[in-house]
TrEMBL record:
Transmembrane segments: 20-40, 186-208, 228-256, 262-286, 356-374
Gene3D superfamilies per UniProt: abc type-2 transporter like domain
Organism: Hwangdonia seohaensis
The family this protein is said to belong to: Belongs to the ABC-2 integral membrane protein family.
Pfam families, sorted: ABC2_membrane_3
Keyword terms of this UniProt record: Cell membrane, Membrane, Transmembrane, Transmembrane helix, Transport
Coiled-coil residue windows: none
Domain ABC transmembrane type-2 span(s) in chain numbering: 153-377
Membrane topology: Multi-pass membrane protein
Protein name, entry field: ABC transporter permease
Record localization: Cell membrane
Length: 395
């Protein structure tokens, strides 16, 4: 035990002497967590710039312009009589939409000719385009209904009858689980989980590969020939430090007022499994690839697309089955699937058993693989040293 504690102290010294490892392990969760939190803190997209081409210049078009200006999601950047060279302006001004109110718009409304308002959306940014489209549609449909009702009233119908004649049925949307449509609730949890997986991957990718590179591995195995001993030795510092990193991540939920139920036992189990799965996969790469740069590069190949492939933001039904099947064995995919069930749907352990099983499978396969591979490398190192001694004696 005394020998293990002595080696553990050396491990901590080696960790804290590695600037790259410290930057990854501590800098990424803290820096990126705060950065992305502030990026999505506003919660929803507002003040998207639009241009209105008012070719009619009538009270009806003025009413439409006023209604669009009152919508919080839109910002009327300019109102002009002609479009001029609006297409050339859009790339630089980043207008989300251009709304064209045609000539004789009010006249045609009064004549029941059903004039058409054209909306040109800037689809270079789909999120902005969809948000602008929804807000513009809401404003125009409301005004359309109001104008239709006013027309019926002018024909002599009572206001109640006019409204009943236009509105055949009502629609009531009830938003569940994220009723405000807040983007910080939607995006930040997934991003933070992906960051933590990547941090653990990259940190663990350095633990053995660094030893192979600088020759410390040959010294280390003199203390013990057991791969289990060395795996536990390498994992212990991170098992001690990672709870504090997860605590910081959980406090970001509180700081940014993310309405997700994360302080419960099922979430603790899910977090522990993600941590162990990420650690063991990272350590396996570190053992298999005795080069720090190559080990981290290969793990980046896995972790970089993990968030997109997880199905957290893009439905897995729209992803080819082959890609989806591979993504199932990336730890964060299972974590995010279980996270949503627990944090937003109020699920328990039984509800995330499919995710737990796959995470346990990843843990077992990665652990057994690295134990066998590390034991092989330890035995090979001793054989190599014995051969060197024999050759030296013969000389």
């Amino acid at each position: 035990m005394k020998n293990f504690i002595s080696l553990l102290q050396v491990e901590f010294k080696r960790i804290f002497s590695n600037g790259v490892l410290l930057a990854i392990f501590f800098g990424a969760p803290i820096g990126y967590g705060i950065l992305f939190g502030y990026v999505y803190q506003q919660g929803k997209v507002v003040d998207l710039p639009i241009v209105i081409i008012d070719e009619d210049r009538s009270p009806a078009s003025d009413k439409i312009i006023d209604a669009l200006e009152d919508n919080e999601g839109l910002f009327v950047a300019d109102v002009r009589a002609t479009d001029g060279n609006i297409r050339a302006e859009m790339p630089t001004e980043q207008y989300a939409a251009v709304i064209t109110i045609p000539t004789d718009f009010e006249k045609h409304i009064l004549q029941k000719k059903h004039p058409e308002i054209r909306v040109d959306l800037n689809m270079a940014n789909i999120l902005n385009a969809n948000t602008a489209s929804n807000n513009i549609n809401l404003v125009l449909m409301t005004l359309n209904a109001g104008m239709e009702i006013e027309g019926l009233k002018k024909q002599g119908l009572h206001p109640v009858q006019a409204m009943a004649s236009y509105e055949s049925f009502k629609i009531n949307f009830n938003k569940l689980y994220n009723s405000s449509g807040n983007y910080v609730n939607f995006m930040l949890p997934g991003i933070l989980a992906a960051i933590m997986q990547q941090v653990i991957f990259l940190a663990m990718a350095l633990v053995f590969s660094r030893d192979f590179e600088d020759g410390y591995f040959a010294q280390l195995i003199q203390k013990s020939k057991s791969s289990l001993y060395h795996i536990f030795l390498k994992a212990t510092p991170f098992l001690l430090m990672l709870p504090f990193m997860w605590l910081f991540i959980s406090l970001l939920f509180v700081y940014f007022n993310i309405t997700a139920d994360i302080f419960n036992f099922p979430m603790l189990v899910l977090t522990i499994l993600l941590t162990l799965a990420s650690m063991f996969v990272g350590m396996l790469f570190s053992i298999a690839i005795p080069n720090q740069l190559k080990a981290t590069e290969l793990l980046m190949v896995i972790s970089t697309p993990a968030f997109i492939l997880s199905g957290f933001t893009w439905p897995t039904e729209a992803i080819p089955n082959l890609i989806t099947n591979v993504a199932q064995f990336i730890p964060v995919t299972q974590f995010l699937s279980g996270f949503r069930r627990i944090a937003f749907y109020g699920g328990d352990l039984a509800s995330i058993m499919p995710e737990i099983r796959i995470l346990l499978l990843i843990i077992v396969v990665a652990f057994v693989s690295m134990v066998l591979l590390l034991q092989f490398k330890i035995n090979s190192q001793f054989k190599k040293e014995a051969k060197t001694v024999v050759e030296t004696d013969l000389q």
